[in-house]
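Handout, section B. The chain below has 444 residues.
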Amino acid sequence: MAVSTMDMTKGPLLPHIKRLAVPATVGLLFNTLYNIVDSFWAGQLSTDSLAALSLNFPLYMLIMSMGVGFSAATGALIANAIGAGEIRKSRKYLSQSLTLSIVSSLVGGILLLVFLEPLFRLLKAEGDVLTGAMAYGRIIVISMPLINLAPILSASLASRGDTVSYRNILILGCLLNIGLDPLFMYTFGLNEAGVALATVLIQFLSLIYLFFKVVRKDGLKELGVKDYFPEKVYAREIFEQAVPATTNILTMSLGTFVITWFISSFGRNAVAAYGAAVRVEQIALVPTAGLNVALAALVGQNNGAKKMDRVVRSYRLSLLGGLFVMVVILPPVLIFGKQIIGLFTETEEVIRMGYEYLLLQGITFYSYIILFQSNALLQGLKKPGMIMWMGLYRQIAAPALIFYLLCFALGMAERGVWVGLIFINWSAACITFFWAVRTLKSLR
């Protein structure tokens, strides 16, 4: 195993989890704060601007779906290869993933540009909201190939035991965003387009930094130009791992469109409330995302090394860690949620609806932990198929039926979405958990 790579197949598991999860959590916290900064400055501009960025949230997830899918695939394959002692193969997975991501993002970006305005109109955007959403969306879509490379490089580093580098660049990106957003929005008069340009600039700087770190850790050592040309064997393996993860993120994006479509039926205040409340919810879930990163890397290396007992113990420790996070984080978030939402907007109706969302979602908090930890386990085991099917259930099939019944048939308005999410998320978490346990038993 390369000197620059952490060997997670030996030693106590808890220290490995801490070394990976803590930097990842800190970095992801600043990434969430980055998004909050965007929402804050948009809210200072107008409620319409906040609504425009809220409409772009599912679009951004759609754009990121390829990058996240490729990063999940790359991380799992590299970690397994490292665990099996196949170092050159681990490097080829990275070079091939970078190329496949660029090509896929170019194709996806062209398609999104064609259908961008119809997508926003489907969500009932009009007037200034539509103008702002289009100004932001066009720039982000055009930059799709650039945006999707950083997660792949980050996954490569995490599979080698380095989550510190991504933490550092996410902290720096957040700090830069505090100044760049108002510079582009107000000084240059670019409004919502300024938020997008700030994001693209920061992503470019992040990409350079992460690439330098990968090279320093020998992640692409001894590879030539021909190693970046797609090869059938590697492409097939990568797509087998990436498609379920990409589909899951894609369905999350489409699911957010579904949620936004239902909510938009009850006015722009409801849309703005959802956008602001989701940001707060993301803060609470950040520590669990750090556990996801740690678990995927641990499972990947130990699965590659055929040490299934360590895989099982890693999963158990991670779920216990998520429970601890919930006990510590959830109460203050619920208590002070109204004040946090108030940072984004002064509209009382938006604050009221957003806080109501947070209170109800407190019931389903641990379901997210179970679901995402189980997904990380399945990805690390190179058995991600269930992730795709559960994404389709949780984001498309169940919401279309349950939201309609609650919002319209039972007349619960936007509350129908808030309540429906409780049933949908818990049912998805339970199904995925039992599937993950079954998969572990079949491999032992």
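Note. DSSP finds 15 helices and no strands in the chain. Compare this with the example in section A.
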